[in-house]
Amino acid sequence: MNPLSVLLLTIVLTLCGVAVWLWLGNQQLREDVDLPDGDMIYADGARQHQTETLYSEEYGLSGKPDYLIQLDDDSIIPVELKSSYAPADDPYDGHIMQVIAYCLLVEENYGIRPPYGLLKYRDQAFEIAFDEQNEQLLLEILEEMHDALYGEYLGRDHDNPNRCAACAVRDFCDERIDL
Question: Which H or E run contains 62?
Answer without folding.
Answer: strand 61-63
